[in-house]
Amino acid sequence: MENIFSIWTKEGLLCDKNGDGVIDGTNVWIDLPDNLAPEGLIDFCARLGFETTALSFRFFEPCEQAVKLSFVYSETATDISLENDQLIIRYQSEQELSNLLKLLAAMDPEQMGKESDVMALRNGRLYAGQTSISTIVYQSNHAAAPEINSLSELWSFSGMGKNNEASPAKLFHMNIDAEKSCLSPELLRELCYFAARSAMYSTEMVFPVTGNKEASLQLEVIEDDALILELVKPNVLQLRGRKENITTAAYQLARAKHWSEGGVFGYWDQKHQLSQKKEPPLLFDMEWMDEREVDLAFDLLKREENLAGTDVEIFLSEPMEVRRRLEREWREIFPQVHSLTIRSAFKTGLHWLMEEMIPSMQAFKGIEINVQEEAGEKGLELPIRWIQELYPADRLIEKEIGLKAGLVTYKLEGNLSHTYEVYGLNEQREKHFIGSLDVPVSRLPYIDGKHDVYPVSSAVRIRKNGVAEEHLIQTDRERFYRFYIDKVLPKLRDAVSDYHPGQGHTRPLFDRIEMDVWMSEEEVKLQVDEERVSALEALHEDLYFNTLDYFAYLGEKLEGKPFDAPGGVHPFMHVRVGEKPEAQIRVYGWEDKQSENWVTTAILFNEAGDFSKAALTNGTEEITLPIEAFEKPDRHLHPDVNEWLSNHPSHRVLYPDHSYRGHAIPIIECFLDTGEEYDSPLKMTLFKKTIFIEAGHHSNEVSSTPAILQLLERACERSDHLLKEMNMVLLPLANPDGYELLTKLTKEHPEWKHHAARYNAVGLEYSFVRFQETIFGEANIYPEVLRRWAPDIIVDDHGIPSHEWVQPFAGYNSPPRFPVSYFLPSAKIYGIGRLSTGVFRTIHEGNLDAIVNEISQAISGTEIEKENSYWKQRFRKYGNEWLPEVFPIEEAPGIHFYRQPSVAPSYSALGVSRYPEWIGAEIISEAADEVVYGEVLKSCIEAHIVFDLAILDVLQRARVDVKHQNGNGLSYERARPIQLL
C-alpha cells in the first residue's frame, strides 16, 4: 500500500482474489489487543464489507500477506499512519480511537486526500479533526432499506433482511448498539463480522453504524440472564445474554445462513408450512357408462324398414380396422343395401382423402381442394375450420403418391354445396372433379354460455333415389363430454360454492379432479413430422382447458374476475378397442384454512450458545419450533436434473422454495469462484452483467430443461472468459409438480402434448401470482432470483406443440383463452420479446433488435434455419394466409420474433414490465417440443442452446460502467437498463 488514502482500494485493504477485476475479498489483519473494544471498529468493518462482493471472517487472524492494522496508545495524539506497509493507529483514549475509526469508515478517498474539518494530514499522518461522525450522517440517495418483520428474514435468500420489491440498489442503514457492560473484545469481533457481512449485501451505505438511533434497522446487544435474539418490534432486534455466553450467540448469528444455502435460517417457517399440507379428502366420485355409438348406429339400421337399394353412409369415431371390419359384417347382415361405407367421425375429411380419394389422384399434376367456409354466427370455429381438419393432407398425399405438397392447394368458398370438393389438375391446369364429401356435425353450447361449438358427429345417412336422410348420433366422446359439463361440473360448482375470499385466485377451490376415461378410438402416429390422429388426445385437451374456462367464466360471473386457480384437472385417457365407453371421476376437496401469517418473534439458544428453537406467533397462538438445517434432496424428479446435479457437485445449487406439492426447487448459480465463505449476488451483478434463464415452466415443454443444463457446458467451452465478464443463474425445472404429473400421463401416451401438465398442480399459470403472498412456492422463485441477483436479461425457454392441437368441443382449435392459434407448429423455434411501455421502451426495443440480429446470425445456414423455413410455409398455408391476425408472423432473418401484444402480452408479474428501469430485456424462446423424444428432442435442445448462446454473446459484448457515488452517502451504481451493442 502506497499511502493511507488507498485503504478502500485493491492497493489497500481490499483484493481481487479471482482476477476478474472486481473486489471480492479483504486484505487486512486487525491486530486488536485484548484490552480494547472500540465500537467504531464496527463501522470500520462494515465499510470493509460494503466495499467487497465476497468475504470470509478472517479480519482478526494473522496473515503475512495482509495489511496489518495495529493500535498503539499515545499520550499526545490520535492519528493513523502508514509505516513499513503497516497501518498504525495511535490513540489517546478508546473513545477517540472509536471516533477515528468511524471517520475512516465514512470517508471516501477524495475527501480523505483533502484538508477538511473532518480529517487533517500532517507529516504523513491522518488526524481526526474537530468534526465528529455524528454531524456528518449521510442520507440515502434512492435505495430501499431491507425490512425485518420476522426474524426468519434476518438472513434471507437475498441477503440481510428482505425487500418487498426487487431492486439493483439496496441500502445498509443499521445501528449496532452494545451495552458497555457486555462489550468485550471477543464480542466486538463478532459484531464486526456481523456488520461487515450485512453491509456486503448492500450497494449504498449510511453512516454511522454505531450510535445512530435514527437508523432504520436496530440491533441492540444487552446483558441479560436469558440467551435470546428477540424481535422487539419490526426492524428492532435485541440480542440478550450473560457476558460469558453472549459472544457465542453473536458468533452463531454472524455466521448463520439462509436455509436455501445449507443453513438454518427460515427453515423452521418452511418446514412448518410443508407439515401443514395433508392428503386432501375425497369430495365426491361419479361413474359414467353408455352404449357404444357403434351399437346405436347398428340399432338404427335395424329399425329401418326399407333399406333395399339404398346407399348407406355411416360416420363412426372408431379406428380404421374396426370400421373396415364393421363394413364387412354389416354388408352381410344388410345384403339389401346397395352400398355401405363407414367413415371416421374424427378428422373426417383427412380420413376420407387418405382412405378413399388417393387412388383417383395419381393421374393428376396437381390437386385443388375446395373447402366450405365456416360461418356460424355463435360458433367458436374459425372460417378455415374445415381446412384445419385436413391437416396434414398435402404431406400425406406427397408421401403416398409422390405429388409434392406444394401442388396440393386449398380454396375457401362461402357457398360451397359440400364440405369438401376435390379436383384434379392436368398439365394444362384444367380441373377434373374427383369427389365430394358432406361432414355431419353436432351442436352443443360452449361452457361460456355465449357460444356454440359444432364438432363432427357420428351419423347414419341413408340415400335413396337421390334423397338423403341423416340421423345424427352423438359420438362416445360427445356423450361423455356432455355428461361432464352437464352433471360433473355443476356438482363440483355446488360443492365449492361456500368458498372463502382468495380461493380460485391465490388458493384453489378444490384440490384436483382425476378422470379415467376408457373408449374405443383411433390412435395412430402418421408418417409425417410428429403428426398423429388421436381423438382421445383431443378429448384430453378439451376436458383440461374447458374445465379451466368453466371456472374462469364462473369467477367472472361471481366476482368480476376469473378463477385462475380452480384446482388440478388430470384427465387420464385409455384406448379400449371395441368396448363400451365408461369413465370414473374423483374430485378431491380443498380444506381452506384462514391464512396464517406466522411471525418469528424470538430465537432461543441453548447453553452452548447454539441455535435451539424459534418462537412464532400468528397474533392469537404461539408455537415453538426446533431449528434444523435443510437437507438437500438426494434425488430430483427430472432425470436430467438429477444426473446433472450428481455429476457437478462443485456448482452452487440453492433451493429458494418448495413447490405446492412439496418438491424443493433448485437454481444453479454460475459465477467465478472467490473461495470466500459469503457472497453478495446483488453486489456481483452491480459489477458484472447477469443473465437469468428459466426452463421447465410448462412441464410438457420438454426440451428446455436439458437444454439449459447443456448450455452451461457449451457456454464455458466456447469462452474461457465468460464468467469473468458475467454471472449466470439457471432455473432448470421451474414447475416440478407439473413434471410429476407429466411422468404419470406419458406412461400410457408418451407422445401426446399433455397440456394438463402445462400449468401447476391446481391448473394455475402461476406466473400470475408472482410477487404476491401465495401458497405456490413455484411462483416465488422468479421474484426471489430478481431480489437476489437483479439480472440484466431474463430468458424464459418454452415450447409449442410438436403436432396438431385440436379441441373439437372448443371450436376445433387451440383454446379460446389464447388470442392466437397454436393448432399447428409455426417454427422449429421462434422468439418473443417482452417490451415495456414507458420512457425505457426505446432502450428495450434497441436491446431486442440487438438480440434478434445476433440470433438470426447464429442460426444462419443451420438446420434450424431450414426447419424454420419449412414450418413457416406450413404455418402460412394452413393459417396465416387465411387469418393473419389469428396466425401472426413477425419475421426476422431465419426466425419469427414476436413483439406484438397478442403474442407477448404485458402484465405486472413480468420483470421487464415491473422493473423497466433496470431490466434490459426479457426474452422467451418457443421450440416445437410438446412432447418429443430422440432426434427430434435433440434438435429442439440444440435450437434452445443456439438461441440462448446468441443472447449470451450479445450480453458479453455489453459494457458495464460502475460509478462510486459520494454525494449524500457511499454508494455504487451503474447505468441501467443495460444497453446491448
TrEMBL record:
SUPFAM superfamilies the record matches: Zn-dependent exopeptidases
Any GO BP annotation: proteolysis
Domain Peptidase M14: 686-756
One Pfam family per UniProt: Peptidase_M14
InterPro entries documented for this protein: Peptidase_M14 (IPR000834)
Molecular function terms, GO-annotated: metallocarboxypeptidase activity; zinc ion binding
Name of the protein in its database record: Peptidase M14 domain-containing protein
